[in-house]
């Protein structure tokens, strides 16, 4: 990673001195940042996830990113993995270089607004210089990603119209959509674990909504498949605008605009260690892509563990069962939180209740494996802590957040 701009040692010292302040006030600053930016540039609401704003997920994620950048301002190479993860999402959302000055202006305004007199001219000027360097890094990485997506065989830039060729209900809450390009031309391949962004134009909504959905099949077909959970209202959290739209309003023959596949949560097949896939609920979508890929690599020893409420909520179960039965290298285990009588009669699950470390140790031969997991945040926290307690090295633990990156530490 290179940048044409450099920071003085004085600027670096000032930025690093603000790290404790960011740790304390970072979320307040980023909440104010979004509020001010959207007031002045409401057109950016076409890009950002409104629900994540309301629930505070996006401000928290941005605060964590700003904190990391400040802490490593003298060695930005250290945060390149985070930069690339965010850049994948930006590329899939169609974030452009011209958006960065807008973000920088309002971030500085928010810092000044929240910190008041503590945000001296010296601090604001230092942050302006630092933001310029950080923005250049993101712009350069994202430019490379845009070029790669466009230049791939079957690739494209920005959004491309696709037809819903098939819509299949997979469970009480999960429905699959098979998407084929409207122009009938080739589509680019992708790595198992990647996602696409879908632009939803919903009647009555002032702004369009963009959501990212993991590809739930293997690459190399003439369609992309996404499998979406309908997010119903619960407690004080309203129903998911896009997921209910996709389930209730989108039908076969409709046209949706999507961006080319993106994402850095991808299956690595080079390590010789066994591979363990663990999913909860609709977190199975990237895992199914990985599983079907691994089923074609008989030399790989694979364990797949999936957790669902019960068989009625377990999507794509027949497809997965077929993949497993036709493979010699996959061990498959199910944990049902509240199994139905039908589940008990059919004996389709191996664990009742939640996955825990004691049970994991009975189905996974040992901890010397590459572990991939995805699911609801509470589920991911438990799995992450269980793997750490088991002594699995951090570099062998891989996970994906649905939405802004969160914190798995309890």
UniProtKB/TrEMBL annotation:
List of residues binding heme b: 90
Membership in a protein family: Belongs to the globin family. Two-domain flavohemoproteins subfamily. In the C-terminal section; belongs to the flavoprotein pyridine nucleotide cytochrome reductase family.
UniProt GO molecular function: nitric oxide dioxygenase NAD(P)H activity
Domain of life: Bacteria
Naturally occurring in which organism (per UniProt): Alkalihalobacterium chitinilyticum
Keywords: Detoxification, FAD, Flavoprotein, Heme, Iron, Metal-binding, NAD, NADP, Oxidoreductase, Oxygen transport, Transport
Catalysed reaction, written as an equation: 2 nitric oxide + NADH + 2 O2 = 2 nitrate + NAD(+) + H(+); 2 nitric oxide + NADPH + 2 O2 = 2 nitrate + NADP(+) + H(+)
Keyword Transmembrane helix assigned: no
Binding site for FAD: 195, 211-214, 401-404
Residues bound to NADP(+): 281-286
Cofactor binding summary note: Binds 1 FAD per subunit. Binds 1 heme b (iron(II)-protoporphyrin IX) group per subunit.
The keyword Flavoprotein belongs to this UniProt entry's keyword annotation: yes
UniProt cofactor(s): FAD; heme b
Top-rank EC class of the record's enzyme: oxidoreductase
Name of protein: Flavohemoprotein
Description of its domains: Consists of two distinct domains; an N-terminal heme-containing oxygen-binding domain and a C-terminal reductase domain with binding sites for FAD and NAD(P)H.
Site (Influences the redox potential of the prosthetic heme and FAD groups): 89, 400
Record-annotated active site: 100 (charge relay system), 142 (charge relay system)
CDD domains in the record: flavohem_like_fad_nad_binding, Yhb1-globin-like
Protein purpose: Is involved in NO detoxification in an aerobic process, termed nitric oxide dioxygenase (NOD) reaction that utilizes O(2) and NAD(P)H to convert NO to nitrate, which protects the bacterium from various noxious nitrogen compounds. Therefore, plays a central role in the inducible response to nitrosative stress.
Annotated stretches, region: Reductase: 154-410
């Amino acid at each position: 990673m290179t940048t044409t701009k450099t920071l003085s040692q004085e600027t670096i010292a000032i930025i690093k001195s603000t790290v404790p302040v960011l740790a304390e006030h970072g979320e307040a600053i980023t909440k104010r940042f979004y509020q001010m930016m959207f007031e002045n540039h409401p057109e950016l609401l076409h890009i950002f996830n409104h629900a994540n704003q309301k629930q505070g997920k996006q401000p928290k994620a941005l605060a964590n990113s700003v904190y990391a950048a400040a802490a490593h301002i003298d060695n930005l190479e250290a945060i390149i993995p985070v930069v690339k993860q965010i850049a994948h999402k930006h590329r899939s959302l169609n974030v452009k270089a011209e958006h960065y000055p807008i973000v920088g202006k309002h971030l500085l305004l928010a810092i000044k607004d929240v910190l008041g007199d503590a945000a001296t001219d010296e601090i604001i000027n230092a942050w302006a210089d630092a933001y310029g360097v950080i923005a250049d890094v993101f712009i350069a990485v994202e430019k490379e990603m845009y070029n790669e997506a466009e230049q791939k065989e079957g690739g494209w830039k920005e959004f491309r119209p696709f037809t819903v060729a098939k819509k299949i209900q997979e469970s009480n809450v999960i429905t699959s959509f098979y998407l084929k390009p409207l122009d009938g031309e080739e589509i680019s391949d992708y790595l198992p674990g990647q996602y696409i962004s879908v632009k939803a134009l919903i009647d009555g909504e002032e702004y369009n909504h963009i959501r990212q959905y993991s590809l739930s099949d293997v690459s190399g077909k003439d369609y992309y498949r996404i499998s979406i959970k309908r997010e119903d209202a619960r407690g004080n959290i309203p129903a998911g605008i896009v997921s209910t739209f996709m389930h209730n309003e989108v039908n076969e023959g409709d046209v949706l605009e999507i961006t080319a596949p993106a994402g850095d949560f991808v299956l690595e097949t080079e390590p010789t260690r066994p591979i363990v896939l663990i999913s909860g609920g609709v977190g199975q979508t990237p895992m199914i892509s990985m599983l079907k890929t691994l089923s074609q690599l008989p030399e790989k020893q694979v364990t797949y563990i999936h957790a669902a409420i019960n068989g009625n909520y377990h999507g794509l179960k027949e497809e997965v069962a077929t993949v497993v039965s036709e493979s010699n290298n996959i061990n498959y285990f199910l944990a049902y939180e509240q199994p139905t009588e039908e589940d008990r009669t059919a004996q389709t699950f191996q664990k009742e209740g939640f996955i825990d470390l004691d049970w994991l140790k009975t189905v996974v031969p040992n901890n010397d494996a590459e572990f991939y997991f995805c699911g609801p945040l509470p589920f991911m926290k438990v799995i992450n802590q269980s793997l750490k307690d088991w002594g699995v090295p951090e570099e062998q633990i891989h996970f994906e957040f649905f939405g802004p990156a969160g914190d798995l530490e309890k």
